[in-house]
User: What shape does this take?
Amino acid sequence: MTLPLALADLDEIPVDRLNGVGDQRRRALSEVNIHSVFDLITYYPRRYIDRSKEAPIVDCVVGEQIMVVGEITKVTSRSTRNRKSLVEAIISDGTGTVRATFFNQAWRKKQLLEGLTVALFGKIDEYRGAKQMANPLIDFVGDKTGRIVAVYPQSEKAGLVSWELARWITEALRRCEERSIEDPVPESVRLEYGLVSRHDALRLIHEPAELSDVQKARNRLVFDELLRVQLTLRLSKLHREGAVRGIDHDLDKFLSAAFFSSLPFKLTAAQERAVMEINADIAKARPMHRLLQGDVGSGKTLVAFQGLINAVANGHQGAFMAPTEILAEQHYMGLKEMAEGFEVPDSQTLTGVRPLSIKLLSNSVSTTEKKRIIRQLKDGSVDVAVGTHSLIQSGVSFKSLSFVVIDEQHRFGVEQRAKLREHSREDGRWPHLLVMTATPIPRTAAMTVYGDLDVSVLDELPPGRIPIETKWVSTPEAVKSAWNYVREEVKEGRQTFVVCPLIDESENLVASSAEATHAELIRGELSGLRVGLLHGRLKASDKELAMEQFRAGLLDVLVATTVIEVGVNIPNASAMVVLSADRFGIAQLHQLRGRVGRSSYKSRCYLVTEDSITEDAVRRLQALENSTDGFELAEVDLELRGEGTIFDQRQSGRTDLKLASLIRDRLWVERARSCSESLVEGHETIASNPMLGKEIEWFISARGPDAENLWRG
Ligand code: ADP
Ligand code: MG
Assistant: This one.
């Protein structure tokens, strides 16, 4: 008797075993990372066309948002007067015709072939008496019949079209019928969450009879993806906890309480909770591995600082790694100020104590000074090191590092983090690790690349914050009013950031554009004000100076590049003007905007755009105008860009989450997590479910070195 097919079996069957997949098609498929039948049947539709919703062209009313399905009968292309390319296609459905026009998309010429059946989504206009759709969404229906048609992501580059993919997938699924596809998820779990079988789910996602089938299928497949990830992480965590030792801290020596009472404000409830979670972790000998997540301005820094102080109070050392020089500098100053008056035991002094010693290790520090600090970290006379990558340069070692903080962790690679953590101690023990991010639920972040992090969330802002008012301005008059506003604010004693356009090509160009903007503003809109300049190409000492002057209120306006994007904290800054804002992504604009609104002053952010911008840019800018909630914005970003690109994640060939979204599918993340807990329960294997155990083994080996590393540590 033949057994049902496991995913590993399907992954062993190369796609060219299917009819119609020869050498050339195989190469095309491999360009979109489809190598095996498993890859193919988990290549999911991008959307579905519900043909019962299609409108006969004859009935279409101008101004309406509609879908029409028809055949391409004619395609022409030409240049317009202002030298934009224009491709036009006539679509006919037997009741009438509509013209689809595409500006600046010359490649459409090759895509829109006469005789193809397409679905168009968009608004109907009228042009010289004829119906027209400008830049409609277009899907290729192919020869598919049936009410619901699945549309697959096409690849221009690889020359793959939707209906071809559909055909192969149908064939692959048909061939699975005889043996059927195995289902390792216990029936009890399936019942609990109302999940269909894996085989049914795969059939329904590709060939639904109703749109409601898609949801059913999706739930199951999303759960599968998340469960695999959760099980992998859980097993690796158990493995790590069994294998690696950390440093336990004595709660009685903690100085958090004293530290907090020295602050001019009370912690938010969320901060208190995070502090408790962290302190409970570091009291144990098992290395902490925790993500502190909180929107910009939620007060993550303090939570980290108190941990550092507790480590020092226990006779150990702390390290605080920031992604930029500016941020390292800021944290250094902040930490120094807050640690004012704290003492550590020292038998070498008369009093038996000495002041807590914090040092900055960055490029702005002279070589001699650097050498001295490195020596002092080794002999233990420096307690806390704040720095950038310099902290992980070879030659830096600590006497007894026990607490590591990494700010805005998505800026660092796995290797860098591992280095700081694993090579900092001679006894092989691992310091506790706290990574901080303002990115809402980093996608695979928490999950795949960063290993199984525990998560603390700061889900409330300190009281008294007034939401930042955001205005998108594009006309000369509106831009003028933005600069007037800046002047008004300066009169009130407030300060302003001006953010210069993002230019892809090179940092030199960015710097020179910042210089030009600076010069132009001084001559024009901001004449008479004290305007500083900050960009990446300045000497370290000049950067420092600009930042110091701005912080001290000696400058009214700081013209800067995105060097100020993360973390910079100048509470007196109440206005921001972002130039060419359409060039920035949502997440980036949200981060940038977070530089203002960090006090109880009313703040405003202007997003300036010139001439024509893309439709997506419009949606991004509107989203920022409408919301200051990082979570909500992440959702919009997700819709506009697809999840993979939000978090600057390098995409490996194989993604673990093809359907599941850590943002949208939060509920399923929770379910998969609790299911994985009950399945593993304290063992390092899934003893009770060998089928699932095998699947996870396959999953880990199929994901390559990244997963293997994850497994090890
Ligand atoms: P982020 O989470 O973006 O890193 P920060 O830690 O830089 O935020 O904190 C932003 C500002 O809020 C800082 O000026 C900090 O001193 C202040 N802050 C932090 N916690 C509180 C609180 N509980 N009440 C009032 N202000 C706070
Ligand atoms: Mg911060």
In short: The pocket of adenosine-5'-diphosphate (ligand 1) is lined by residues 265, 267-268, 271, 294, 296-302, 438, 462, 567, 569, 571, 598 (CB under 6 Å). Residues 442-451, 643-654, 705-713 have pLDDT under 50 and may be disordered. DSSP finds 24 helices and 23 strands in the chain. The longest helix spans residues 211-243.
